[in-house]
Each structure stands twice: as C-alpha cells, then as structure tokens.
Amino acid sequence: MWLEGTAMSEHSCGPRHAQGHDRRQILTSLLGAGLAGAALNAPRQALAEATRMAPIPGDELFMRMAIAEAAQADFPFGAVIVRDGKVLAAGRNLGTTTNDPTAHGEMVAIRRFVASRPAGELKGTTLYTSGEPCPMCMGAILWCGIGRVVFAASIEELAAKIGQIMLTSRAVADAAPFATIAITGGVLSAEALALFSK
Ligand SMILES: [Zn+2]
Hints:
Layout (H helix, E strand, L loop, with lengths): L1 H11 L1 H4 L5 H19 L7 E4 L6 H13 L6 E6 L2 E7 L12 H12 L9 E6 L3 H10 L3 E6 L1 H5 L9 H6 L5 E5 L4 H6 L4
Parallel strand pairs: 1-6, 4-5, 5-6
Antiparallel strand pairs: 2-3, 2-4
The structure holds zinc ion.
C-alpha cells in the first residue's frame, strides 16, 4: 500500500514539479514509477479475497451436468451456473460451431444467463466447469460477480491434452482486489479428462 501511495503522489504531483525539478526529484519520480510497476506485478494476496474451498454436497451432481455439456462440445469443455440448487444456465464450447474462439463453455453459459436474466443475478451464483477457467473466462467470472467456481480438471492437467494459458484461476482472482470468490478444484477431474481420449 505504501508503494502504491508513493507512486500515486509522484504521478499526481508531476505537473507541479515539471518546471523546477532537480536531479533528485527526477530520480525520485523514476524510482516512484519503477516501484509502481513492481507493485503492479507483485502478488496481491493481501488485497484479493480468492479463497480455496473444499467440495460440498451437490458439487458432484452439478459437475456431472457440466461434464455432460462438455461431452457434446466442439472441444470437451462445459459449464453450468447454479443458484440454490437450480441450474440457471448451461454452456459448452462452441468455438467451431459459432466461428468464435471466445465461445468457451463458461462464456457461453454466462451469455445465455444474461440473455434471459438481469446480469446482477449472477452475483452469488456458483459456476461449475469441467476445466479450470482460462484467464479470459476467469476475468469474465470476476466481472460478473460470480461467488464461487468449481472446476474438474486443472489448467496444469489440461495442458497435457490441449494448449493452455498457464495462469491459474486463483492467480487471476488474486489480481482482482474488487472481487470475492471461492474456488474449488479437482471435482471429478478424471471424468473430465477422459473426454479428451474419446
Ligand atoms: Zn476459457
């Protein structure tokens, strides 16, 4: 926090200092900018609220639905969005069918949800996905205020089957201090991974 505060004040004082700064001030400004960069790249554990959560009853049931979606997908990835024990939207990878490389299972499920309900109702839902969300999907999940993510196969496991951006869902969540999310991994991962062998 101190680093960010320092960096901010260096920036906001910039114009005032511009006319008369000596070498020391320039050095301080450069140092401030460097520190700001370092702060941006540093882990945000202290600010973020991504928590690891153990599986709870019902997780396997909904994961089986996500895996059933994945079994019909262009690439074997599927997702369902759940609240109070009810599936409110489902999606599967439609990257080829829709000529849209962003049509990952999670994105399709979110788009279907908001097609029929206010986006605000995504808050507090749980998203079950057969594969750990990639950075694009995890970003969308955080912007939507989804409260919990449950995934089957991890990015590390998926990387042995299909190309992945090697950034975990937790790393993305930890970089989003505005979001509070619980993450549960490894629910029925063997079943999700088996789809890649079919
Ligand atoms: Zn994705």
